[in-house]
Specification:
- By secondary structure, the chain is an alpha+beta fold.
- It has 3 domains: 252 residues, DD-peptidase/beta-lactamase superfamily (Beta-lactamase, 3-Layer(aba) Sandwich); 81 residues, Sandwich (Peptidoglycan synthesis regulatory factor (PBP3), Domain 2); 35 residues.
- Strands 2-1-9-8-7 form a 5-stranded antiparallel beta sheet, sandwiched between helices.
- Strand 1 and strand 2 form a beta hairpin.
- Helix 2 runs antiparallel to helix 4.
- The longest helix is centred in the last third of the chain and has 34 residues.
- The radius of gyration is 33 Å and the shape is elongated.
């Protein structure tokens, strides 16, 4: 019996170590990386994810966000002033190929910026949205703070090396999640090819072009934004494909080696590690009870409250959800009455698993809160006394009335 238990323990230890080693022993070139769930940015694994570093052309995602949120009609056109963007051609930046005097819409500018990483398109956007380049950079930084990118600074719209142009793995993940929620931005970053509406410019996605050129497997990557400068080196912020759950992967600071694309290879490896060694399990399903709340003047002292949506987390394949590791931070109604109906949203709960934040969910009343006159009366003794006095007086009145009728009958019978 002891021998059997020993064998089981050894197998468990091996299984646990296998899952840990799957993350720690993989060879990655990236100096900084992180992989997160798209829904709630649960961090699955990372390395120096809060270190401030240059992010190269990933910066253009913020350029696109500021443009799309400040131009009401993306079909609005501007005229390209080539002298203002000529330096990007002269210094051999990645460009879309805009022509001097060309009339082009903001929609086309966003597409020709994000897909081939066109520095000319990014600069054209920054010069025109507010009519003031400095104002545009200011808005990029304001937007970064608004969405929680507290360790980020932008100094230009293209990601050119500058001591004031930096971010972190985690902040970039925040930005990519925010961008994903905009259909236009999401589609552009996942498109393979794009042609401007006038048909004059056709561009291809730098991510997929590089993968095709060097035969790199990117089957787990649905799209994203590449970057490369001397300081930032190769970078990639991407979205997953063919994984159990949507993920965001950020890799920064990959070595620049001829015919080697470490930023693509590392991203594919990270997606594979999560997909092969972890499973996406529900901690709670919609309608599951997560806690009870006290009631006021009800037939039950406490009633259940439930989550109004599913919430899940990644755990090793060999594990099961351990509810001893679940913690809940509830905020909302603290005392329920019969006015609260089944299914009514009464607050929200932050769900944590093993110390990791999984997200906030709406919390609803899970069962009927029935009114109890008995329990109500216990909290209202004065009313009960008054009620009893009224009943006594009413009974006295009825008795008096009855006696009066009887007396009249007796008098009548005498005659």
């Amino acid at each position: 019996m002891v021998k059997k238990i020993l064998i089981i323990l050894i197998i468990c230890i091996i299984c646990i170590n296998t899952n840990v080693l799957a993350l720690e022993n993989v060879e990655l070139n990236s100096k900084y990386y992180g992989i997160y769930t798209l829904d709630n940015l649960e961090e699955l694994c990372s390395k120096e994810s809060r270190k401030k570093v240059p992010i190269a052309s990933i910066t253009k995602v913020m350029t696109a966000i500021v443009c799309i949120e400040n131009i009401k009609d993306l079909n609005q056109t501007v005229i390209v002033d080539l002298p203002n963007v000529q330096k990007y051609y002269d210094e051999e930046y990645s460009v879309a190929g805009l022509k001097d005097g060309q009339e082009i819409s903001y929609y086309d500018l966003i597409g020709t910026m994000l897909i081939p990483s066109g520095a000319d398109s990014a600069s054209c956007i920054a010069l025109n949205v507010f009519g003031d380049y400095s104002k545009f950079i200011e808005e990029m930084n304001n937007k970064a703070k608004e969405i929680g990118m507290n360790d980020t600074s932008f100094a230009n719209p293209i990601g050119a090396d500058d001591e004031n142009n930096y971010s972190t793995v985690y902040d970039v993940a925040l930005m990519m999640k925010y961008a994903y929620e905009n259909e236009t931005l999401r589609n552009f970053m996942c498109d393979y090819e794009y042609t401007t509406k006038d048909g004059t410019i056709t561009v291809k996605n730098a991510l997929f072009v590089l993968a095709d050129l060097y035969g790199v497997d990117v089957s787990k990557i649905s799209g994203g934004k590449t970057g490369m400068t001397g300081d930032a080196r190769y970078c990639l912020a991407s979205y997953s494909k063919n994984t159990e759950e949507n993920l965001i992967c950020i890799v920064l600071g990959c070595d620049i080696v001829p015919e080697t694309l470490y930023h693509l290879e590392d991203s594919q490896k990270l997606y594979n590690i999560i997909d092969e060694n972890y499973k996406f399990e529900k901690v709670y399903s919609k309608g599951n009870k997560i806690l009870t709340l006290p009631t006021y003047h009800s037939t039950k002292q406490n009633v259940s409250v439930c989550v109004n949506e599913d919430i899940s987390t990644y755990i090793p394949n060999s594990s099961i959800i351990d509810f001893n590791k679940v913690s809940i931070d509830y905020s909302g109604v603290e005392l329920l009455t019969s006015k609260n109906k089944i299914g009514e949203v009464i607050g929200s709960a932050g769900i944590y698993y093993d110390g990791k934040y999984l997200g906030d969910v709406d919390v609803v009343v899970g069962e009927e809160v029935k009114f109890s006159i008995l329990n109500w009366s216990k909290d209202n003794p004065t009313f009960i006394i008054i009620f009893e006095i009224v009943i006594i007086l009413l009974l006295a009145y009825i008795l008096k009335k009855k006696n009066s009728i009887l007396k009249k009958k007796q008098v009548f019978n005498r005659f």
